[in-house]
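Bench log. Compound arrived from synthesis this morning; before running ITC I wanted a structural hypothesis for how zinc ion sits in the protein. Inputs:
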Amino acid sequence: MSQSLTLPRPDDWHLHLRDGAMLRAVLPESARDFARAIIMPNLVPPVVTGADARAYRDRIMAALPAGADFTPLMTLYLTEATDPADVARAHAEGLITAVKLYPAGATTNSASGVRDFDRVRGVLEAMAESGCPLCVHGEVTDPEIDIFDREAVFIDRVLDPLRRAVPKLRVVMEHVTTRDGIDYIKSAESGLAGTITTHHLIINRNHILVGGIKPHYYCLPVAKRESHRLALRGAATSGDARFFLGTDSAPHLDDAKESACGCAGCFTATNTMPLLAHVFEEEGALERLEGFASRHGPGFYGLPVNDATLTLVKGNAPTRFPAHIETGDGPVTVFDPGFPVHWSVAD
Ligand SMILES: NC(=O)N[C@@H](CC(=O)O)C(=O)O
Ligand SMILES: [Zn+2]
Ligand SMILES: [Zn+2]
């Protein structure tokens, strides 16, 4: 028996495309299924000015396969030296869609991030005025705080005080991984949303650590215990418009992940939509995938829902996804959910 589901073409509200050979290898994987994506600015060096964002957008457009229908929505990497006027100009021109806050040292390429939040108050106030959203990597970096608690502590120590200090600022809590994060987003009347990744709906911390360490399941924020994964599933499949898809597809070469000090990031661009169909079907919420992947994100960002459509089909045989993609510099492993998936994207 075959089944199918057609939705408005989805968007990815949190994506790492990198640069150079990696960009050319991973961009087609996202452009195939997604119409737009919020492009993370954590390159080396980071995308900090409007001019940087313009140049990066040009490199992405140059790397797009012929005939692809994909729009990169650019972001700036917030530093303590960010000029509020440059942000305001880039946003007014439509060059950027959001600004990204990385606490310094929290994740991959975050060394230029923010240490002293008072130093970015002026930029945040200008963004609140112009309606430019702030996307946040929500983890504290205090070495005293256990890595599994870093998201919950960030909410109390940083995010909530920041939102109270700049109440009109629109904030996206990226890659929520805890029940605490879900509850915090639900507690806000307006101006706060959360992205949820594909892999955090699928794995908990046992998947990373039981039976041998699995570097391809290691990402930041690190997957938490099962009760948190269930809270994420509940939120994603609830129909609540404050939650939408941000894959956080974050490619690293296999050599960099399968290492004594492996990089954080799961590469899910290739198979995200079939995996999500599997998860939503498992939760008895297939009809809500459209809200999560195609409608809630544009709603928050004030953009139109895509006119084009994407069709997912469920076949009798498990779908065969590539195990890895080639970049020219080495392979990147595609996220393996560890169970058979019968959904695929129709041609
Ligand atoms: N999510 C990750 O584990 N890694 C991301 C950075 C990030 O989104 O925090 C990356 O750039 O590799
Ligand atoms: Zn992050
Ligand atoms: Zn990310």
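What the model suggests: The radius of gyration is 19 Å. Residues 3-345 form a domain with the TIM Barrel fold (CATH 3.20.20.140).
ITC booked for Thursday regardless.
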